[in-house]
Amino acid sequence: PHVIRKRVMEALPFMATENILMACVKQGGNRQDLHEAIREHSMEAARVIKEKGGECDLLERIADDDKFKAVHSSLKDIVNPKLYVGRSPEQAEEFIKVEVEPVLKKYASYLSEKKAVELKV
Predict the structure, then answer these.
(1) 105 phi and psi, to 5 degrees?
(2) Residue 16's pLDDT is what?
(3) What is the pTM of this model?
(4) Among 4, 49, 58, 86, who pairs with 13 as Cys (CB 3.0-4.6 Å)?
(5) Of the candidates 5, 25, 17, which has an alpha carbon nearest to the alpha carbon of residue 88?
(6) What is the C-alpha to C-alpha distance for residues 110 and 96, in angstroms, rounded to an integer?
(7) DSSP string of 6-60?
(8) Local structure of 100: helix, strand or coil
């Protein structure tokens, strides 16, 4: 779960840009100006990640930009990871229940055996 969360949080700021843009437009922002600002911030944040090995600072850039003032107070709500993962939690649980648990049950006796294992490399 921690690895999945880390991966989602790395991509989330980029995934959320459309929702951030639309929230600002609903508050009267100019779509073209906001789109260009998000494009510039996204490109710079991606450059920091790819060229410098840094952390994604896209949300900080948006939070510091007055063009996005309309969403500054709701930015954390807009980028809630649960809004972007769809049915994946339910699908994973269903897969475990339908596919994994029957196999584990079938081979439970093998799994509970403790045997010495020798590894030759």
Answers:
(1) -65, -45
(2) 95
(3) 0.71
(4) 58
(5) 5
(6) 19
(7) HHHHHHHHHHTHHHHHHHHHHTT--HHHHHHHHHHHHHHHHHHHHHH-----HHH
(8) helix
Q: Using alpha carbons, select from 25, 23, 62, 24 the residue that is nearest to residue 42.
A: 62
68 within 8 A of 20, measured Cβ to Cβ: yes
CB proximity list for 75: less than 8 A, separation 6 or greater: 20, 59, 62, 63, 68
Residue 64: predicted pLDDT: 97
What is the C-alpha to C-alpha distance for residues 86 and 70, in angstroms, rounded to an integer? Answer: 26
CA 66 to chain centre: 25
Question: How far apart are alpha carbons 56 and 37 in whole angstroms?
Answer: 16
pLDDT of 77 reads 94
Residue with tokens 């807009």: 78
Three-state DSSP state, 120? coil
* pLDDT average per 10 residues of sequence, the chain (121 residues): 80 94 96 97 95 92 96 93 88 96 92 82 85
